[in-house]
Design brief:
The protein is built from twelve helices and 14 strands.
């Protein structure tokens, strides 16, 4: 059975349901935004919302994908950096609880955390403190971390650390791994375009992008962007929201639809789509079936709050995924 290694920003997701938007105004957090905050502001947000219902989970884009793969029964490992604190301990324990092998480096900096304040209309407002997560560096990695794994999944946010990303993909290739990259955010693509194009062309086998990211990378609309991406890596996937996704490898092209769902929160849909796709690929499925697996997972996660499915949802999803076999 294939083994998957992921690398990314190790963040603890703290999901809080707020009664109304007054709290956002008090905290000077524009509704619907993602604000990077320092540890002091993060503490203020937690203090102001401590009376409200909240839930915690290990998070970050790549960690979400790895979590999805682990729930699908794939053997997985995650590389990241956390602080030597309660949040760091929680992150590690949450990985282990979900059968993910943690390869976590420790920092004296506070662990990263993303507070998601969910308004009554389901709009999400993030106050994110990256903390130790962005201290992961090239010097932390060696070839032993990559041995005995078949796939290597990277979140695009790591492109901001050129040295780290290049060493990671080089070590993965030296260990004959299949490399997948999720472009993460259009503004990150814009800011790092030349380096990102080099990495994709030289190292990446599978690329995941949404419409905006694909446009930033190629300057083209989704279908044309897909065709271009498929010329520089083995498999290209462009996610098109409510219209589904486009998949291409060589001359093998598929348009994948969406599953019927009542949208509550789109957070994590792209991450778990990647989990479904990579699961299918690791099983040797045809590309259209891989895309359907991704669509099933994404359709279920947008019906709930937060980027992870609960156990009831997983029971339903696993039945649907297994019917694809």
């Amino acid at each position: 059975m294939a083994k998957v290694l992921g690398i990314g920003n190790a963040l603890v997701d703290i999901i809080i349901l707020i009664d109304d938007d007054h709290l956002l105004e008090e905290l000077a957090l524009p509704k619907g935004s993602m604000q990077l905050v320092d540890i002091k502001k993060s503490g203020l947000v937690r203090k102001a919302s401590e009376h409200l219902d909240s839930s915690f989970a290990s998070g970050g884009s790549a960690a979400n994908t790895i979590h999805g793969l682990a729930k699908l029964g794939v053997e997985t490992t995650f590389i990241g950096k956390v602080g030597d604190d309660d949040y760091g301990n929680f992150f590690k324990e949450d990985l282990e609880k979900n059968n993910i092998t943690p390869k976590l480096f420790l920092s004296e900096t506070h662990s990263g955390r993303a507070v998601a304040l969910i308004s009554p209309d389901s709009e999400r407002t993030f106050a994110t403190h990256l903390g130790a997560a962005i201290e992961l560096c090239a010097g932390d990695l060696d070839t032993n971390h990559f041995r005995d794994h078949d796939y290597f999944h990277i979140e695009g946010y790591l492109v901001q650390n050129n040295e780290l990303l290049e060493k990671a993909v080089r070590l993965a290739k030296e260990n004959d791994m299949i490399i997948s990259l999720d472009l993460a955010s259009y503004n990150i693509v814009d800011e790092n375009l030349d380096f990102l194009k080099y990495i994709v062309k030289e190292y990446v086998d599978i690329i995941f992008a949404n419409e905006e990211e694909a446009m930033s990378f190629t300057g083209k609309a989704p279908l044309e962007a897909l065709h271009e991406l498929a010329t520089i890596c083995r498999i290209a996937i462009v996610k098109t929201g409510k219209d589904g996704s486009l998949v291409k490898s060589g001359d093998d092209f598929h348009k994948i639809g969406v599953t019927e769902a009542k949208v509550t929160d789109t957070n994590g849909a792209g991450d778990i789509y990647a989990a479904g796709f990579l699961y299918g690929l690791s099983k040797g499925w045809a590309l259209d079936k891989c895309g359907l697996a991704g669509a099933i997972l994404a359709g279920k996660v947008i019906e709930i709050l937060g980027p992870k499915l609960d156990e009831k949802s997983w029971t339903e999803v696993l039945k649907q995924i297994h019917e694809l076999h």
